[in-house]
Design a protein that fits this description.
The protein has helices at 8-26, 34-41, 47-57, 89-92, 115-122, 140-144, 159-164, and strands spanning 31-33, 60-63, 69-78, 82-86, 98-104, 109-114, 126-130, 133-139, 150-152. The protein has 166 residues and is an alpha+beta fold. It has a single domain, classed as Trna Endonuclease, Chain: A, domain 1. A hairpin with a 4-residue loop joins strand 5 and strand 6. Helix 2 crosses helix 3 (47-57). The longest helix is centred in the N-terminal third of the chain and has 19 residues, at 8-26. The mean pLDDT is 88.
């Protein structure tokens, strides 16, 4: 299964990614889109190069006052009761300063989860293969019951406080 920006799943994910990015900007956080940041650093990067970088670095980068990357955020959504999570993320997107932000569309809940914890948990889930690509299969309750998460409420503008505590 090749990635296609035209799928409903991809469109939902991109829309939520933009929502998170804009909320972080409005909250006065120094963030940049990973894609734009690396494209501006090297105009020779192709879309394939940038996609590979994004797999390792996440969708959104948070910078300190010296313009050093301090935190990485990978953003995704879950539409229904069940979802799939790419196996490659458990090996490529990993580190103490890397986090997932997930929105459960059926409940409108948003959570921040450390990549190390979620990736370790995901590796214990049922593995399935779709069109030659490996995924972990999970249910919405797995995220809701995941202990090492922080609930985010964009209406209360709490992202800056949460991010500063990481």
């Amino acid at each position: 299964m090749l990635y296609s920006a035209k799928t409903d799943r991809a469109k939902r994910g991109k829309q939520f990614q933009e929502e998170v990015f804009n909320f972080m900007v409005e909250s006065k956080l120094n963030v940049k889109s990973t894609w734009d940041y690396y494209k501006n650093k090297n105009l020779e990067y192709t879309n394939v190069d940038l996609a590979k970088i994004e797999q390792k670095e996440g969708d959104i980068l948070l910078f300190d006052n010296n313009e050093n990357v301090t935190l990485h955020f990978e953003v995704f959504t879950l539409l229904d009761e069940k979802g799939i999570f790419p196996v490659f993320k458990t090996t490529k997107y990993y580190g103490d300063n890397k986090y997932y932000i997930v929105k459960l569309l059926s409940t409108n809940e948003i959570y921040l989860m450390p990549s190390r914890s979620w990736n370790g948990y995901a590796k214990k889930l049922k593995k399935i293969n779709i069109h030659g690509k490996d995924f972990y299969s999970y249910k919405i309750s797995y995220i809701q019951n995941f202990r090492n998460k922080i609930k985010i409420d964009f209406t209360n503008n709490d992202i800056k406080k949460i991010v500063s505590s990481l």
